[in-house]
Design brief:
transmembrane helix, ABC transporter permease, membrane, transmembrane, 71% helix
Length: 460
């Protein structure tokens, strides 16, 4: 053990003397801190935006009270009144933004057809969507492997090339102890850096101190250990430093860039999904066509869905609001199969990626961190289902006014239902991701040990 600590201390002195490595490690630390800042700032901006929505809804109500000082037709209120379905983040979202940077975190709703509103979102910079937002999860998953490669590509090869290894092994020290001490120092450095960044992020984001803290740290540590395992495996080939560097960077490109890209192409082909714009266009065509259809035909189709309103007064006027909202809803019903196919297709794609992400620990780690933060695709789909139920509740609130022809008063605004939805962590997905990382870890280290056993270290 004393020899081990002597070697460990020597590695620390060598690291301090290598200014390039010190600079690189410091740069990764600064980039990680920026990732924490960006993630917390982005979630803070979203929270601020969500906090302003009730005031916007209240302002809209005050405008309507001014516009309609007397009891009014509920159809006009439903047409002009705006409310919001909101998706609140968990504190963990600051550490891994996931889908919150590409999908809307609130939906502006009126009593009109749902589908066109549900898939409407603000314009965003496509270049930003392509590159993604910068958060701590991005630094840990994509940049930390590069730091590990920079620290470990010449684990033994540099000593060989400088002629130091024969002198070192001539002492009463084994090659396994030398490799173990070198790996242990690098592990301590990288894992210490990862733990410091994770700790700072958790304190900054004020995450609750529960079991999710352990899951996050376990994911980060196993992922880093996997990349050290690859360095260990490549070292076992006993080639020169240039070969090791090219091999490790090549593995990074394959596992972080190539495999995810190919997996995306395969999943898109294996699980085709209807385009959201196709759904919206078809719904609008159905709604616009409702103006030209006989009112009796429209209302009979509506009453087949809602027989409780069949006894309402026959429509004789040229325009009446209950007819208007009836064909708005029928427009939603006409694209219901497309909407179901769209959400089912997205869910099937996600499930297929989850089954295949063992091919790339980077995808596995990113998916697991997003699931832990409640920023993955299933959470977004759950928010959309919640927004759909809220729209159904709004219709159920307004229909008695519309079909019983009850005037809408100022006091009725306070009775209108509201909506809120808060993300939750997908713990089961995270635990499955941990299991896959453990398997990958075991395979890599077992292969490295077998390689070292088959090819004992040659000091020359």
């Amino acid at each position: 053990m004393r020899v081990f600590w002597i070697l460990f201390t020597a590695e620390w002195r060598h690291f301090k003397a290598a200014r390039g490595l010190v600079l690189l490690t410091s740069l990764v630390l600064l980039v990680g801190l920026y990732g924490i800042y960006y993630g917390t700032t982005e979630i803070g901006r979203q929270r601020q935006h969500l906090a302003e929505l009730p005031a916007l809804a209240h302002h809209n109500v005050e405008e309507l009270k001014t516009k309609f000082p007397e009891p009014a037709d509920a159809g006009e209120i439903g047409y002009y009144h705006t409310t919001f379905a909101v998706h609140h983040p968990t504190p963990w979202a600051s550490l891994s933004l996931g889908q919150r940077d590409v999908n809307p975190y609130y939906v502006k709703l009126r009593l009109l057809g749902l589908q066109g509103q549900l898939y409407a979102s603000e314009n965003v910079n496509p270049a930003k969507v392509l590159s993604g937002n910068f958060d701590l999860a991005f630094v840990l998953v994509y940049l930390f492997p590069l730091l590990i490669i920079a620290l470990s590509f010449n684990l033994l090869s540099s000593e060989k090339e400088q002629g130091i290894l024969p002198l070192l092994l001539a002492q009463p020290v084994s090659a396994a102890l030398v490799v173990g001490a070198k790996l242990a120092f690098r592990l301590a450095l990288v894992l210490g850096l990862a733990l410091v960044l994770s700790g700072v992020a958790m304190l900054w984001a004020r995450v609750p101190l529960d079991g999710r803290v352990g899951l996050w740290l376990a994911l980060v540590m196993l992922y880093c250990l996997f990349w050290f395992g690859l360095a260990f495996l490549v070292t076992g080939l006993q080639r020169n430093s240039a070969f090791n560097a090219v091999a490790l960077v090549g593995l990074w490109l394959v596992l972080v860039v190539l495999v995810p890209g190919l997996l995306n192409v395969y999943v898109s082909a294996a699980r085709p999904v209807p385009q959201g714009i196709e759904l919206t266009v078809k719904q609008r065509e159905e709604i616009h066509g409702g103006w030209d259809k006989p009112k009796t035909e429209t209302m009979n189709r509506f009453f087949a869905l809602y027989p409780q309103w069949r006894d309402t007064t026959t429509i004789k006027e040229h325009f009446v609001w209950r007819w208007y909202y009836a064909f708005q809803h029928l427009g939603d019903q006409s694209v219901q199969p497309l909407a179901v196919a769209y959400t089912d297709g997205l869910r099937q794609r996600y499930e297929l990626v989850n089954r295949l992400n063992w091919l790339s620990p980077a995808i596995n780690a990113q998916t697991s961190l997003n699931a832990l933060a409640g920023t993955d695709l299933p959470t977004h789909l759950a928010f959309q289902r919640s927004a759909t139920r809220y729209h159904d509740t709004l219709r159920a609130f307004y229909y008695p006014y519309l079909f019983r022809q009850v005037a809408f008063t100022h006091a009725d605004y306070a009775k209108e239902p509201t909506h809120t939805f808060t993300s939750s962590s997908e713990i089961s997905t995270t635990i499955r991701g941990l299991g896959k990382l453990l398997v990958s870890l075991g395979v890599v280290y077992a292969a490295g040990l077998l390689l070292f056993r088959a090819r004992p270290i040659n000091p020359r």
